[in-house]
Amino acid sequence: MTVDDAARMALALPEAAEGERYGNRSWSVTGKAFAWERPFSKADVRRFGATAPPDGPIVAVRVADLGEKEAVLGAQKEGFFTIPHFDGYAAVLIQLTVAARDDLREAIIDGWLACSAPGLVRQYLDREAGS
After folding, report:
1. Where are the beta strands (DSSP E) in the chain?
2. Angular region, 56: left φ>0, alpha ψ -120 to 50, beta rest
């Protein structure tokens, strides 16, 4: 998958908007970023040491809290990971060339749910339940 695939998934959600964050594409709802491109900085690459960092496009996606982050990472879905820079931060990283399309879509929806206003979340969940 590509960043464009992630963008299509994000922008299919109600009131989602695309913008830029630190020179990279990001997607937000109600003013909060729920997903964004996250290339590795030089410091990130150094922290990998002798291990090669994941290659290809990477996106970061918000999760509701650190408990959910642990659960997502504990599920060991292919392409989902974190780095020391994200310690203590409620988001996971996803290697797009490895992650399954359905897993990415689910993560993006969960990120959107974590950042959306409660009324918007209710409308979305009611609509999905009626589908």
Report:
1. 17-21, 24-29, 32-37, 58-62, 80-81, 91-95
2. left
pLDDT tens-place string over residues 25-57: 999 999 999 999 999 889 988 888 888 889 999
Global pTM value = 0.93
| Rounded Cα–Cα distance for residues 22 and 81 (Å) | 21
State the amino acid at position 66 in one-letter form.
L
Q: What is the DSSP string of 4-17?
A: HHHHHHHHTSTT-E
Q: What is the C-alpha separation between 53 and 49, in angstroms, rounded?
A: 9
- Count of CB atoms situated within 10 Å of the CB of 32: 13
What six digits make up the tokens of 3?
């960043």
Distance of alpha carbon 85 from alpha carbon 111, whole angstroms: 19
Cβ-contact 38, 58 below 8 angstroms: yes
